[in-house]
Design a protein that fits this description.
Length: 461
């Protein structure tokens, strides 16, 4: 493909991604407009609501203004003053990243992946600006600066991830150049950094997965409470479907909040509230059915703190074999394991704190301006727990693997880790024979013996 074709296809991919992300809330609200309101209300208000919800899900803040009479009827504290809604339903952000990755997988096969990625990102930015201009209303105003920055950024992250995986698979020169830059580091530093990054990422992913499992179990256990809240809202079939779609969009947020709960600091549902293993203190909260599954304070909540400890120990024990392992224990090796364990804790804490920051925000006026986990507390708890457990797991597993018959093979395998990584990177280069070197000829078949002994040996008697 030439450059214009690559740019055109990348722009079409970006247009399709924006249409899918915006179309999900728009279809549900259009059905609500047709069924619940009998087409009597202006449809453009539903278009603006869908655009606002889509941009909110990608991290764009909304400035909401409610007239004093409506605020008094809703009973919202300080709602008469314009306030911001900054909590992002991360389901839409995850969808944007996945759609960007889908485009990047194809762009990695083209001869101009950088041009295609840049074109797609710019197209998303232009479309976001156009949608923002049509989503203005007297009630809700999204942030233009965040719309033209965050939406292209999320799409670009997905596109880069997809293109990079394809470039690695196709042995592209761009991927070879990036890997060559890492070869400038020493084998030991590269190995320790790779283990720290891999271990921290696995720990963070394991905690989010455990949080998602905890949310699923709580929804099953408190199923009757959730259904009672649905019935109390009396939203009808179409309204209930739209409400369910909105709650599905915040499921990634809830999984991150549950991971923070398992980690220890918990999360807040309003200023002064706290939901943690140490106890639950709530004030007035929105009547969303999913909030009926909130965990209640119990002495057994301390058992949840075992989860991150087990995750840190298991991950460190599994990755211990990737580190060099001398036959004799020394202070240098202990320092290396300590640095790697602390590195795992820093990586895991950074990922979890960024997720906590992205998943929280303002849900309404007054005390609802503080919703979600505290990123600083999540970072400190994760750094201490994972840094300590990872170091203990590395030291304990390393000492157990020494001595006896198993010490030499383990040591030889650990010393060859860097060499295996270098060999794997060398596979990205396609071996070609030299132009001035002739291919070796196949050896000629040996001539049969002159005396006919071969025939005598093979002939039947």
């Amino acid at each position: 493909m030439n450059r214009p074709t690559t740019a055109l296809l990348a722009a079409l991919d970006a247009l399709l991604s924006v249409a899918i992300g915006l179309g999900i809330p728009l279809v549900m609200l259009t059905i609500l407009w047709a069924v619940q309101f009998d087409l009597a209300v202006d449809w453009t208000s539903f278009w603006r609501a869908a655009a606002d919800f889509w941009m909110l899900g990608n991290g764009v803040d909304l400035l909401v203004s409610i007239d004093p009479q409506t605020a008094a009827q809703l009973g919202l504290e300080q709602a008469a003053v314009p306030f911001e809604i900054g909590i992002a339903p991360l389901g839409f952000a995850l969808l944007t990243v996945l759609l960007g990755r889908r485009s990047g997988l194809r762009l990695g096969q083209s001869p101009h992946p950088v041009l295609g990625t840049v074109t797609g990102v710019l197209t998303v930015g232009v479309l976001a600006a156009l949608i923002w201009s049509t989503a203005q209303s007297a009630t809700a105003v999204p942030s233009l600066r965040q719309a033209v920055v965050l939406l292209p950024l999320l799409y670009g992250v997905g596109a880069v991830i997809g293109a990079w995986s394809t470039l690695l698979r196709l042995h592209a020169p761009l991927a070879e150049w990036v890997l060559d830059q890492t070869d400038r580091l020493s084998d030991e530093v590269r190995t320790l950094a790779a283990v720290a990054l891999r271990g921290g990422a696995i720990m963070a992913a394991a905690m989010v997965a455990a949080g998602a499992l905890a949310v699923s179990l709580l929804l099953v256990i408190h199923y009757s409470t959730v259904i009672s809240l649905y019935e109390s809202l009396q939203s009808g079939i179409a309204g209930g479907a739209a409400l369910t779609l909105g709650q599905i969009a915040v499921m990634p947020n809830l999984a991150i909040w549950a991971a923070s709960w398992l980690l220890g600091p918990g999360f807040a549902l309003g200023t002064g509230s706290s939901v943690s293993p140490l106890g639950t203190q709530l004030g007035l909260i929105p009547s969303l059915p999913v909030f009926g599954a909130l965990p209640q304070g119990s002495p057994l909540g301390f058992v949840a703190l075992i989860v991150p400890v087990v995750v840190g120990l298991v991950v460190a024990a599994v990755l211990r074999g990737r580190l060099p392992s001398p036959a004799a224990f020394s202070l240098r090796e202990a320092g290396r394991m300590l640095g790697t364990g602390v590195g795992m804790g820093v990586v895991a804490a950074t990922i979890l704190s960024l997720l906590a920051m992205w998943s929280g925000g303002a849900l309404g006026p007054g005390r609802l301006a503080d919703v979600g986990p505290d990123p600083g507390a999540v970072f400190l708890w994760a750094l201490v727990i994972f840094g300590v457990t990872a170091t203990i797991g590395l030291l304990a597993n390393g000492m157990r693997g020494r001595g006896g018959v198993t010490g030499a093979p383990r040591d030889a395998d650990a010393r060859g880790t860097a060499a295996r990584d270098k060999a794997a990177r060398d596979k990205l280069t396609v071996d070609k024979p030299s132009r001035g070197t002739a291919a070796p000829e196949a050896p000629a078949d040996p001539a049969p013996p002159a005396d006919g002994s071969q025939e005598k040996a093979t002939s039947p008697r």
